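ok, trying the design again with the full structure, not the truncated one.
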């Protein structure tokens, strides 16, 4: 009976660990198509900066590289760097 309890505990702990790891994976955001709410989910980007991204995109066309996001007023290279794994351009 001890083996079954130990096995059940190990399975539970493994399930919890992998579940949390999966839950922490953030989705990739295409900065050329994302809406205000999606852009605002980025680290250091609030609704005002998200709207500035959309305005910049509408006035200058789509971004060709994620680094171009730093051209938007109020968004620096550090913010782009912090979000690099979540940013995409398609």
């Amino acid at each position: 009976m001890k083996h079954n309890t130990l096995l059940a505990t190990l399975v539970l702990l493994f399930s919890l660990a992998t579940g949390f790891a999966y839950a922490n994976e953030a989705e990739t955001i295409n900065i050329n198509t994302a809406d205000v709410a999606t852009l605002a989910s980025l680290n250091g980007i609030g609704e005002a900066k998200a709207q500035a991204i959309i305005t910049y995109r509408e006035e200058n066309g789509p971004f060709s590289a994620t680094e171009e996001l730093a051209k938007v007023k109020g968004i620096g290279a550090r913010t782009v760097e912090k979000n690099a794994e979540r940013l995409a351009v398609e």
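Keeping the full-length input from now on. The chain has a mean pLDDT of 87.
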